[in-house]
Design brief:
Length: 218
């Protein structure tokens, strides 16, 4: 499967370690290292997108426009909460069956509806596919992958509409290679000393760091 072949496992452990490193002044080398943990224990309702969540998204170098923030935090808050309540908190991407994928991530699923609600296609408020993915990944980090231009290019994903299917195939095509791929991600997580991260996020960081190197070498 194409995505699996794109991952450079020889550098992945060091890449994840570096991502969580600090500078001489004590600040994180990458603000994204605080994406999952910013505001931990404070204002963290799992079924509500909070102001803290929107700040956390900025750790991954995107900003939620003011009009969108108002809509997410106020106007659409109940609709968003209802959809989030239908998406399990403890379901991990690596444990998805075809039936669970269809129920929670496929077309017409709660996640698909939340994606559309955040994007506001009929009355756009400048929440693009990257920003929407990061908002959703903040709320369901074990289930929703981060999507951005760097990862898209490295992974060879055509567009955000197929992203969840591409990631699902890499984890779950029934081959021994898929099982080995998941085991490697678990090993990277353990060796890098980041047990709190989802396997999706381990893969995201590895691909992103790899992509950034490739861009520098162009």
């Amino acid at each position: 499967m194409q995505l699996r072949s794109k991952v450079d496992f020889s550098t992945a452990v060091e890449d994840v370690r570096d991502y969580f490193g600090t500078m001489g002044n004590g600040r994180p080398k990458y603000s994204g290292s605080r994406f999952e943990t910013l505001g931990e224990g404070v204002d963290t309702d799992p079924h509500r997108i909070t102001a803290t969540d929107l700040v956390a998204v900025s750790m991954l170098s995107v900003d939620v426009p003011a009009q969108a923030s108002l809509g997410i935090l106020e106007t659409l808050a109940e609709q968003i909460s209802e959809l989030l309540s239908q998406i399990p908190q403890d379901l991990k991407f690596e444990n998805l069956t075809p039936e669970l994928f269809e129920k929670y991530l496929d077309e017409g699923s709660p996640a698909d509806k939340l994606w559309s609600l955040l994007r506001q296609h009929e009355d756009p408020w400048k929440v693009g596919q990257t920003t929407a993915s990061k908002i959703m990944a903040r709320k369901r980090p074990d289930l929703i992958p981060v999507y951005d231009s760097v990862v898209k290019a490295v992974a060879g994903i055509e567009g955000s509409g197929e992203q969840w299917i591409v990631w699902y195939s890499a984890f779950h095509d029934g081959s021994s290679e898929a099982a080995e791929f998941v085991d490697k991600l678990r090993a990277i997580r353990a060796e890098a000393g980041q047990p709190h991260l989802s396997l999706l996020r381990i893969l995201d960081i590895a691909l992103w760091k790899q992509g950034k190197r490739e861009i520098r070498h162009l």
